[in-house]
Design brief:
One of its GO terms (cellular component) is cytosol. The chain has 22 helices and no strands. With about 675 residues, it is mainly α.
Length: about 675
């Protein structure tokens, strides 16, 4: 055995090579001054240390014996450590057995605690079920509300024990008690608020108030049935008073509907406000159900009496209805609109109240489309009204009456513009402030704003597309009848001539020029067309903001903008042709002049003087009247130069040769 251990130690010494870090750690834990413990031990140096001289060799036997003794001690220590490792496995098994015993004791303690707790819960459940059944029979709903919640909480602990017959029996008794409670509470409410007949006098009782607390714990359908029956009974009088055959049911007396529900809400708060839990939001639910019923009834009566609906009556009903929806938004949060307890309106469009007779709405203020108004900061919009459309949506199928009315009104408006222009004549020349925009265009777009705001509050669907079509129609009519139709003609032109045929040169006769008033009128029409072009673009953007996203692509006023661009081009062309034609006689005189007979050269030829005179007469007037639209004055100058210069060169080539004397004088 000793030989094997020695061999093991020798092999261990041969293969054991510690890293410098490990060696350093060992030296820190076990500090030693013995050279034999050093990692860089050198046998030669060690022997020289032991025997520095020849005389010291005399005690070599003593030194050898000490070293052998030290080796034997080291062998004994190593042997003890090696033999000690053979008992580690046995000691580990003993510790594991002790740990297993401790775990078993811990499990036993936990199971014992669970068993005691379960027995306590079972005792509570059995006693609670007995008490619950007794209280249910005596209608002690206040005590039942507290007890039932506790019993249901305790019963949850036995969910995994339902296989035990006794536990399953207790669970079935609890369910039976809940069913009996639900039926009993519904019967109590039916007795207090019968579906047929009047309400029981004396107001709500404490029994019903406690019954609502129990209904909060029962199946949600019990609560929903209570709410449904109570609201139905509460609105039964409304359905009788405002039947379709009653005079008060028509649109002209729509205010009476909203006055009735306001009185009912006050009556409910006084009599039943404390009977139902606050979290049931009964006041709001009554108002919401009233809105659903009213929307259905109004839609039915409007279908049957559609021919009697006039635009003033329709707008009156819409105004009163949206005012009422605004009242609901101030009074309630709208939280019951999405809980599904009662039927609800799908996807009501966003909005505010636009139909105020004497005051502009926030949208009207936002949509003031003056020149460049898109660069102005916009006011923040008011929060959405969750009740908007809950009643007023029933008017949407009848908005064609409104659209037809606006078609008629706009037609009359255009006719009035035409008549006013004929009666008042063109605007007076104003060279100080530039060309005046015709006031009729501002009136037209103000009316457009009003129509757009009204219609967008009622519907953002197809009626907005129909209104856009009407807008397009009368934008074109305004461009044709008011703008193009009032561009002046020369005295040599007949009423049926086009712009391209105007101002043709009449050789041998005086060329008719536009008067100062006519030049100012052309500039005014040009400025008006430029205003209409910019405002029409803004109108298109506003319409796209108001209409449903799915209909945006159907809003396109490009054709109308092109029409106004054509008016602008025609006006510029008229101004160019007028000045160009005024210069034609001078150019003609230049080409017919007998240059071979010219013997003396003056400071300036008469034809040059004539051309300069016409330019000085026309250009300043045009410049001043187009001061607000400088880019179009620039276009006029460019087009005139492009027309006059080639014509001047053409006439120059027509000139006959000058005499030799004249040529010498020119040189």
């Amino acid at each position: 055995m000793e030989e094997e251990e020695l061999e093991f130690v020798e092999e261990l010494e041969a293969v054991l090579q510690l890293t410098p870090d490990v060696q350093l750690a060992i030296e820190q834990v076990f500090p030693s001054q013995d050279p034999l413990d050093r990692a860089d031990f050198n046998a030669v140096e060690y022997i020289n240390t032991l025997f520095p001289t020849e005389q010291s060799l005399a005690n070599i036997d003593e030194v050898v014996n000490k070293i052998r003794l030290k080796i034997r001690r080291l062998d004994d220590n190593i042997r003890t450590v090696v033999r000690g490792q053979t008992n580690v496995g046995q000691d580990g098994r003993q510790v594991k057995e002790i740990t297993r015993d401790i775990k078993q004791l811990d499990h036993a303690k936990r199971h014992l605690t669970t068993s005691i707790t379960t027995l306590n819960h079972l005792h509570m459940l059995a006693g609670g079920v007995d008490s619950l059944e007794a209280m249910t029979r005596r209608r002690q709903y206040g005590e039942v509300a507290n007890l039932l919640q506790g019993v249901m909480n305790v019963l949850e602990h036995f969910h995994k024990y339902m296989g035990i017959p006794q536990i399953r029996q207790l669970s079935e008794r609890v369910k039976a008690a809940q069913t009996e409670l639900g039926q009993q509470i519904l019967a109590d409410f039916e007795e207090a608020f019968p579906s047929q007949g009047t309400k029981r006098p004396g107001g709500p009782s404490n029994v019903l108030r406690d019954a609502c607390l129990v209904a909060n714990i029962l199946d949600p359908r019990i609560k929903q049935e209570i709410i449904k029956k109570f609201i139905k009974q509460h609105l039964s009088e409304y359905l009788v008073l405002f039947q379709e055959n009653q005079d008060v049911a028509w649109l002209d007396k729509i205010d009476r509907r909203y006055a009735w529900i306001k009185r009912q809400l006050v009556d409910y708060e006084e009599k039943y406000g404390r009977m139902f839990p606050h979290e049931w939001y009964m006041t709001e639910r009554i108002a919401v159900e009233f809105c659903h019923v009213t929307r259905t009834e109004l839609a039915k009566i409007m279908r049957s009496r559609a021919k009697e609906i006039e635009v003033k009556l329709l707008l009156f009903a819409i105004q009163r209805t949206t005012n009422f929806e605004g009242f609901l938004a101030k009074r309630f949060s709208g939280c019951t609109l999405t809980d599904g307890t009662l039927k609800k309106l799908e996807s009501p469009p966003p909005s505010t109240n636009p139909f105020l007779e004497d005051e502009p709405t926030p949208e009207m203020e936002e949509l003031v489309m003056e020149k460049g108004d898109l660069d102005q900061p916009k006011k923040p919009k008011a929060p959405d009204n969750p009740f908007h459309g809950i009643v007023s949506k029933c008017f949407e199928p009848h908005l064609y009456v409104y659209i037809e009315s606006q078609d008629k009104n706009l037609g009359e408006l255009i006719d009035r513009f035409v008549a006013d222009f004929k009666a008042q004549g063109p605007p007076k020349p104003n060279t100080d402030e530039g060309g005046a925009v015709l006031p009729s265009c501002a009136d037209l777009f103000v009316y457009y704003k009003k129509c757009m705001v009204q219609c967008s509050q009622l519907s953002t669907g197809e009626p907005m597309i129909a209104l856009t079509t009407i807008f397009q129609k009368y934008l074109r009519e305004y461009a044709w009848k008011i703008l193009s139709g009032n561009l002046p003609k020369t005295t040599s032109s007949s009423g049926g001539l086009t712009i391209s045929s105007l101002l043709k040169e009449k050789e041998g006769s005086e060329v008719a020029k536009f008067t100062l008033e006519e030049l100012c009128l052309i500039c005014s029409i040009l400025s008006t067309a430029e205003y209409c072009l910019a405002t029409t673009q803004q109108l298109e953007e506003k319409l796209k903001e108001k209409v449903d996203v799915s209909l945006i692509e159907r809003i396109n006023l490009t054709g109308e903008m092109d029409t106004f661009s054509t008016v602008i081009s025609s006006s510029i062309q008229l101004l160019v042709q007028d000045l160009d034609a005024a210069c034609d006689p001078a150019l003609t005189a230049m080409s017919k002049m007998q240059w071979q007979n010219v013997e003396h050269v003056g400071d300036q030829s008469p034809y040059v003087t004539s051309v300069i005179l016409h330019i000085k007469q026309n250009v300043p007037i045009i410049r001043d009247n187009l001061a607000s639209t400088r880019k179009y004055f620039t276009q006029f100058c460019i087009k005139f130069a492009n027309s006059f210069i080639p014509k001047f060169i053409t006439h120059l080539f027509k000139c006959k040769p000058i005499s030799m004397v004249g040529a010498e004088q020119v040189r």
